[in-house]
Structures are given as structure tokens and as C-alpha cells.
Amino acid sequence: MAQYSxxxxxxxxxxxxxxxxxxxxxxVRQGIVDTMDKALSDRKxxxxxxxxxxxxFCGGADIREFSSPLTGPPLIPLIQGVESAAKPVVAAIExxxxxxxxxxxxxxxxxxxxxxxRLGLPEVHLGLLPGAGGSQRLPRLIGxxxxxxxxxxxxxxxxxxxxxxxxxxxxxxxxTVDEAVKFALSVADQPPNSRRVSxxxxxxxxxxxxxxxxxxxxxxxxARGALAPVACVQAVRAxxxxxxxxxxxxxxxxxxxxxxxxQARAQQYHFFAQRAVGRWSMPSGARWDTTKPGxxxxxxxxxLGTMGRGISVALVQAGVSVVAxxxxxxxxxxxxxxxxxxxERGAKRRGVAPALDKIGYSSNMEPxxxxxxxxxxxxxxxxxxxxxxxQLSALCKPGTFLCSNTSxxxxxxLASETRHPELVVGMHFFAPAHVMKLLEVVYGSxxxxxxxxxxxxxxxxxxxxxxxxxxxxxxxxxxMLKPYLEQAFFLxxxxxxxxxxxxxxxxxxxxxxxxxxxxxxxLDVGWRVRKADGLLNASEGHxxxxxxxxxxxxxxDLLCEQGRFGQKTxxxxxxxxxxxxxxxxxxxWLHGFLEKFRTQHxxxxxxxxxxxxxxxxxxALMNEGFRILEDxxxxxxxxxxxxxxxxxxxxxxxxxxxxxxxxxxxxxVLERLEHYHQEHPDIPSLKPCNLLRNLVVNGSPPVHxxxxxxxxxxxxx
Length: 717
Ligand code: CAA
Ligand code: NAI
Hints:
Its EC number is 1.1.1.35, 4.2.1.17, 5.3.3.8. It comes from Oryzias latipes (Japanese rice fish). By secondary structure, the protein is α/β, with parallel strands linked by helices. It is built from 27 helices and 19 strands. Residues 20-21, 23, 59-64, 75, 96, 98-100, 103, 122-123, 126, 128, 131-132, 272, 275 line the site of acetoacetyl-coenzyme A.
């Protein structure tokens, strides 16, 4: 709803009231219409201020209402009504003005913002475009290039940047509503005719065609099949080339297409899923809202390789004091330099001073005695990690939380090396750790709720989306990656090429196909894990393509034996112009190697089509997701989907693997898995799991109902 009062004698003050972000629900929209009527019909009122309750202007349309038919006054005529008002209307922007909220402000005649307010049109992240006139008004106000940037990226700008762009008329560090009221008094006698943004001509640009071609190319490259960014460019083009009324018509058509697309549903699901994972629970019944996290003022990071450096930076940027520790002197020196320059770059981007004084370095464990939390990031080697945890347990003060960044080793085994296993949890970051938004928080069988709460809260403080998961090999993300990678290898054996598999996966929307990704992260990583698992040698009398009773592809191992570790060695599934090179080129050697391999093993290459690549890779991955749910390792499908979108570049416009399974149809996924499992009975990961069958038997309920079919979460090894 919206509240109305008259202040300073002649200013009508309208306050949007819908906590927590004053989203434009049907009731709020009705409230705006009613209170505007009041203000305009009150003869004592000379000007109007619109603000939001509790220091937040407006978080945009109420996304929860998108899934049901529209009720209440529609936004477009409402904003038109504000703009055409005969009395000056001033928007008092504090907190946020996003999406429909900013569009409402664009309909006002003046905009006063707090310097720290965040303004933006983030609809593109919800699979939409600014469809309440935003795509037509913004370019008229700030010019086409700046509008294209804001609308296609959905990025927020601060009040200060908004002033530079010409998006707001004035910025203040004081009480924004008071300033807006003062401003409204000062313009009370000025008719707002010349202030209606929809009547502005769109600023001319010397080469519109080149500008839009460039923008379209950029979004297509970034969007990876997403419709919304492309529609955003088309809508801005309409603003630049058509009169306002026709531009609005084009905006309406484009919005209608997006609104009913599966992509918008998927992205809105992702928006709510990211928030739902914060409401975690544990098998014991401990929950996010009943567990108090411990305070973390000072932390220690052990092992300053790829991960430890990024983790240290993320901690410092979150305001935590850090002792960064590394045994290898050369590595320590290099890490020091790398961390300082990452902190400097980050601070420059954010316009603040680098907090170099928040980090100290050590080549021994001693400082562990004085910290609240430790994150271990040494090599992925259980014996080494156990030793580190033993040392920490002896050194740390009582109550220090001990965390491991392991990619998949058993948290319970690490905990059992310590005197206080309840203080041990996994904090699985993703590379680069100061950039990637995902954190898997892994609770072992003895982890205390407080330890989990502390890791979850620390993740949030670092700007991450933290997902609590149970303890099993590979946790959620890497466990699901295994059958996906396996299928890709098997497909190569059966006749296809890395280029074709990658092309199919990239067309689906992944930033990188599985082989390019493997080249980037290094083939040797998986090789070492397989070695530790005793998988590298075939048992006597068995085919080289069977290990531990199941089908196995030795292709990755054979490449590693040749020193082909991927980008870092200049050769992997592709070739690169030099070690460390980034441009992947098809490698004739690899094709010859695959042919030889097939001949050696009596395999006849067959034609494998797009559908088979996609289904075998993705359905095997989804099937493992269902198993994870069945085992109670993830609490719900949202947890898996958030992990995949934020950690594994699953395209957001496809919601995540579990959401996507629902979009494809669970019945179809089940049938195709049955089909492939019949063709390949020696691949257990293709055997449809019971939960999937059960969901199909129960009529394939929508993804938000799956939890009704799940057991309570638990740790399982
Ligand atoms: N509609 C409905 N609910 C919303 C919402 C919205 N626009 N924005 C936030 N919420 C809800 C969240 O779901 C969350 O609910 P729960 O507590 O139940 O989980 C609650 O408000 C608080 O949100 P956050 O946890 O995200 O709080 P925050 O302080 O970290 O961030 C925010 C606040 C920056 C506004 C962030 O919530 C956000 O980015 N919201 C979405 C903004 C947006 O995309 N607006 C455009 C909507 S589409 C539109 O406007 C199109 C149109 O005109 C046609
Ligand atoms: P890395 O090889 O780059 O760095 C490991 C560092 O630990 C080295 O600098 C080494 O000198 C140091 N080290 C070894 N023993 C030590 C000890 N006893 N005390 C202090 N330092 C010691 O390894 P990376 O890639 O950073 O991985 C670290 C951990 O993070 C591993 O468990 C890995 O599985 C996990 N991880 C790695 C990811 C990646 O993409 N690289 C992603 C997520 C997790």
C-alpha cells in the first residue's frame, strides 16, 4: 500500500509501504493511484514527493506476482499518470530504486538520490526487459550508450554515479526525503511540462547502426542463448529510432514474448532459489533462524596457492583480519605480491583504499593460536590435510573453527584428527575464490550447528551465496560433475570429437564445453584423484575399459601420461600456441590418437548426434542430482540448482539442472535414461534413480513440491 500525508504545508508526501523492499505489489500500485489522486485534487498541495518506507525507495515489481494473472492497476498507465500530473512530482531515492522502482522514478519530474542509493534496471537477470517504459525513457534521459550498458547488464549504479550519468538531478548525503521535500517546495511553482522524460527526443548518436551492431554482438556472446539481453538491445533501438508511442508498443511486444518464455520462469526461480538456500537446516533439526554464528574477527588461511590467495583476498575485502600462511618460501613471496595486487585492483574498482594492513604473512603455524577461524587450502592430499588438522587442533585456542577448502575429501576424517570435531566444517570455494559467488558449506556428522552457521555467515559477509550440504565424495557440485565428465569421455570413445561435444554444450549455454573446461582447470587434477582412488591400472585379465566392475575411460590418463595437462602445458584436448595460451585449436594429433585408441580396443566409430551428446551428458548429471536429493546430501532442488548456476556456469536462463529436468519433463528424462542405460548397462550412472521414478509415478510434480518426496538431509559416506 501507500501512505499519504501533507508536509511543510504544500507538499503531498506519498510513502510506498511494502516491507522489506517496497515492491510494487497490486496493493502498492493501487495505493499510488489513490494517493496521487488525493495529492492532485488537494488544492493546498503544490508539489508531490514519492518515497519508500524504511529508507528504501522501491525494489521494483513484486516478482512473486509474476506467476499469477495481473490484478490491480497496471504499471505503465500508472507511471504515465504520474508523469502527466500537472503538479511537479519528485522521487526521493534512498536504499534502492530497481526495475519498476526506477521506472516509477523516471516517470517523476525530478529525482533526488542519496549518494549511496543503488539504482538500476536489473530485469535482464529475471529474463525480462524494463517493460514499464524504462527501455524508452532511460535512453531519452541519459543517452543511448549509457542506457544500453545499464539495461543489458542490469548493473546497479550508486547515487553518485547516477548523478554523473544524468539519471538523477541531485545527490545528497543527508536525509533524502527532507531534501526532496525542500526541493519540491522550490519547484512548486514551475509547471512540469518540460520535465516529462517521455517527451524528450532521444539524444543523437553519430553512428547508431555500428553502436547497436556492437551491442548485439556483445550480448549474444555473453548471453549464450538467453533471449532477454537481445530483446533489451532491440527495445533500446526502438527508443533511438521510433517516436515514444511506437517505441512503447515495441517494448510491449518484446516484453510479452519474454514474459511467457520458459527462460523468464527459470531466471525468476533462480532469484528466489538464491535466497531460499540461506534458510538452511541440518539433520539434527538445527536451523538458520535458531543458530547464532560465532564472531570471526581474525582468520588464518593455510596454503597460498591458487585458492588460498583468493580466499585471503575475499576475507580481507569482507573486513576480516587475515594471517596468510605458506610453508614454501618462494610461494610465500609470490603469494604476498599476488594478494597485494589483487587487493589494490579490487580497491581501485570499488573506489576505496586497499586494506593492506588487514593482512599479515607467516611461514609457520604459530599465529593459529590467536585466530577465530582457520581455512586450510593445502594440496588435495588426505594425509597432508590430516597432519595440518592435527597441528591446528593442538595450537588453536578453544572455540576456533577449523575449515577445509577440500574439493571433495571426507570432512569427518579431518574432524576425527581434532580434539573438537564439532568445530570442523568444509568451506568449498570456487576458483577464483575472490570472484566466484558460490560457497559450499559442508557439514560432517559431528559438525555443530554453530560451526555451520559461522561458515554460512562468513560466506555471506564475503558476498557469496552459501549453500549448506552434507558430507559425501565430491559434495554436491563435484559429485555431479563426475558422471557428466564420464559421459563426455565415453562419447569420444564411441566416435565423436572434443570440438563437437563442446559445441553442443556451449550452444546449450555453458560458458565452456567440458573439454575446454578440463583444459583450463588442468587434466592432472582429476588424474591425481583417480590415482589416489587406485583407478589407473586395469585389473589383470580385465579390459582396460573396465575398472572396479564398471565401464571406465582411460583417455584422460593416457593424455596425462603424454604430459598433456591442458592449457598450462600448451596441449590437452586441444592445442594452444604456447604453454598458458588461451585460444583452443583442434589438434590433429588428438584425432589420430582417438582413432588409434578405438582400433586398439575394437571400437567402431559411429555418428553421434547433437541430441545424444546433450542427453547423455546432462541427463547423467541430473540423475546424480536426484541421487543426491535421495541421499539427503542436498536439502532441496534449489540448493543443487544454485550450486550449478553459480559454481559450474550452468546457464541461468535454464534455471539449474533440477529445474531443467522439470522443464524437459521428468517422464522424458526417465525414458531417455532408461534407453541409454539399456544400451550401456555397464554405466551405472545412467540407471535412473528411485527418486526420479517416484516423482514420475506421482505425476511429475513441479520442482517446488519435490521436497515432499525427500528424506531429511543427512551426511553420508
Ligand atoms: N519482488 C518480490 N520480492 C522481492 C523483491 C521483488 N522485486 N525484491 C526482493 N524481494 C524479497 C526477497 O525475495 C527476499 O525475500 P525473503 O526474505 O522472503 O527471502 C526479501 O525481499 C529481501 O531480499 P534480499 O534478501 O535480496 O535483500 P537484500 O537487501 O540483499 O537485497 C535487493 C535487496 C537489492 C532489492 C534485492 O532483493 C534485489 O535485487 N531484488 C530484485 C530487484 C529486481 O530485480 N527488481 C526488478 C523486478 S522486475 C520489474 O520491476 C519489472 C517491471 O517493472 C515490469
Ligand atoms: P595449489 O597447489 O595451487 O596450492 C596449494 C598450496 O599449499 C601450495 O602453495 C603449497 O606450497 C601449500 N602447502 C602445501 N603443504 C602445506 C603446508 N603443510 N602448510 C602450508 N602450506 C602448504 O592448490 P589449490 O589449487 O590452491 O588447491 C588447494 C585446495 O583447494 C585443494 O584441497 C583443492 O582440492 C581445493 N580446491 C581447488 C580448486 C581449484 O580450482 N584449484 C577449487 C576448489 C577447491
